[in-house]
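Summary for the funding panel

The consortium committed to producing paired sequence-structure records for every protein in the target list. Below we show the first two records in order, beginning with the earlier of the two.
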Amino acid sequence: MTDGALTPMQDEAVRFCAELIRIDSTNTGDPATTGDGESRCASLIESWLAAHPGTRFERAPGRANLVVRIPGRQPELPALLVHAHTDVVPADPARWSVDPFAGEIRDGCVWGRGAVDMKDMIGMLVAAVRQLDREGHRPKRDIVLAFVADEEVEGSYGMGYLVDEHPEVFAGVSEAIGEVGGFSVTVPRGRAYTIGIAEKGIAWATLRARGTEGHGSMVPNRENAVARLVAALARIATHEWPVSLDRTATSVLGALERLLGRELDPENLEEALAPLGPVAAMFSNAFQTTSAPTQLRAGSKTNTVPGEAVATVDCRIAPGRDDEFRRVFAELVGPGIDVEWETGPSVSAPFDAPLVADMRRAVEAVDPGATTLPFTTGGATDAKSLSRLGITCYGFAPLRLPEAFDFPGSFHGIDERVPVEALRTGSMILREFLRAQ
């Protein structure tokens, strides 16, 4: 089939992404202030996929999840899940140069909240499925499509809810693709598309220090909750976590060395990965645990020492380092501070798998000369929920990006946008990939 025959699919990928952006599906993290945007997205997707009746699941009104199962010719084969989330993080219009919910197309990009996280994937996926329908294609195995709510918070209204309350929708599913991965990286030696094979573990710590409450002129700092907490945060912020090279990290490092054509020093990756441009930071933090203080709350008056101070720390744990992390973190926190945890496990998948080979062939068919590159993300996705069902998860939302495009800066960033040509190419790659299933 000629590229020209695929133009309608490519046009749909762009249009669908823009139309989804125009639905404000902001997830505030507070059920009282999160509207019905996720359900409206589900309804729109349902209308586009009318040839494949789906099932809606709602833990709460306005928080719909849509699941579509496309029957395969050989239903006894393990099924494949392709998933994406419809919710987005908040956007302050006053700080954007465009309306974040207008889905504006200009300067070769689709602009708006969710453009790369991840209404682009939904637009490309739906367009690819519709194109395969027009071609009369029927997959060998069942393909399950899940468009879910609440990924940006904790998934308790989305994928976590489906896994816990409706696991039957994943019957027979052995593998899945979703975020983060698929974006291209360009260096002088060529272009490579990332395939997400691992996610670091997540550990969100709430630190609570207690001390003597009283007048600022009389309470010594050794009894001051703020002083105790700030000292702990300083130790955490300045700690250098060691580079961790397990099997997954070693495979990522080796692939980067082949792409860049030289040996890399794991202890000095920031400089070594500079040729990757804006995406370099997405790779360098994959090799070690990170701990970033994010919130601090204490006191009500300048002249009053509060009896309690609270802070949060966002920790991402290198695979296999959980026990070491807990021991070292406790030493950094020190005595007199209570710690509460919200955690999610690290997940990983093999790079030498048939499904990865399908991704590689799809990339090569659309972008001759390009290759694929294993990738570990520091972010947390719905793969953490799916892993509880034993599903092997990959990140593959393919986008052919311009070399200087600030892809990581678009995630949750101001003026989030995705190149139109990236959507057009990505829809073609997804079509090739799905044709092999």
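The next record, for a separate protein in the list, is shown here:
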Amino acid sequence: MDKIPAVKKARHHDSKNKFDASSCNQLCDLPDALLQHILSFLPLKDVVRTSALSRRWEYLWASAPNLDFNELEFPERVYFLGFVERALLFGDSSSLKCFSLLCFVDQEASRINSWITTVVRRKVQKLQLCLHFQAESGINYMLPSHMFRSETMIELYLAMPCHVRLPPSICLPKLKILTLVEVTFEDDGLIEKMLSVPSLQNLTLHKCNWWHLKALNISAPKLLRLCIVEKEFATDMRSNCPCPVLINAPNLLCFSYVGGLFSNYAISATSMLVQALVRVDGPAERTSDQFASHGYKLLRDLSAVNHLIHLILTYNILEEFNMRKVFLDSFPVFSNLLVLAFDLDRVKLDSKALFAMLSNSSCLFSIRFGGGLFVDSEKDEGILQPTPQCFLSSLKYLTICKFDATDNQLLAVSIMLRAAKVLDALCIKCSGHCSENFSGNLLQHIEELPRSSAHCTISLLT
């Protein structure tokens, strides 16, 4: 494909000439470069329609810097294949900013690989591939080696629910953004090279499969953001997933994890980490001990980061610690944590694990209970006692969401107001059930509750 000479196109103007705005009376008078820039903002189908405007426009669309091909938009596969073929045939050798391809591989693997090779040789900067396979096809597909030896590629998005076979040599000196979706990593050691490109800044692994590897190593010196959405493993693999995920990224700023903690995550050399999100599903059957152990190790590694100021958790990861005294007695210390948020799950204020978390986060400035807050018992004796240091000296802002105004939720608010001595603002976001559970003036009732901070303002949002 890439060896076919470019088709000679009719032009009204020499592209080397300077553009004279005073002589431009209509759109067709604009230079090719400017017209192609305008076309880059349009969907590809609309760009193709411009070929009917005049002889000059006939092939201009094929030189557009952004090419986006989606097989699902075509009534028949043969039309799609021919359309992509013509677009790359009529295109000149100009550089591509973005090439996006969504298609089924089927029996055209070599044809599709020739397209990918062509755009790589056209110095593509952003490559997006969503390749699908029929379950019964049995295709042993391998991406072209040219794809992993690009001097210009800045961003690569690869969604491919099968094994990725990598070439022995990987050279992507400008790659900054890498997203892999539903990819199964081969046990050949080459994936470590892919995940450790020296220029890599953003890495996303979305439901990829690495359970059969001995270890998954991510060691990127310039990595700033890492997002891992862990794949749901089969039941027989959940309790025996030996593959650890080893993260060594000295300049990492943001870490995000979503999943069931099937793998054991180890984070080291992340002294710059500022924000972490840990959103975990509940433990799968027969994996409760593994879930708690992996969750504890992950929190312990995060607590060792000197600059971590924002931590988002789902509550069930702490709830698992309540039944394990060894974790409560040696709970990680978050000495620099300023913002703590509990996402999704409703939090029990009388949880031992929550008390350990608050007691070991002495500098907390803001706490958000995104899933709600309640007290599991009818009495408030011993809850938040002794009072965590952050409630006495640093906690200024408290947000409670999904508030139903039930008795156990009102009791939780009352305990928090009495404990927080320097609180500036309490924001309560009410659900639609508040009027069902409390018939009076709810804001007035809360404002009349005893509190330790006289200057605390209370707001209710519906």
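Regarding this second record: The longest helix spans residues 288-303. The CA atoms of residues 260 and 309 lie 24 Å apart.
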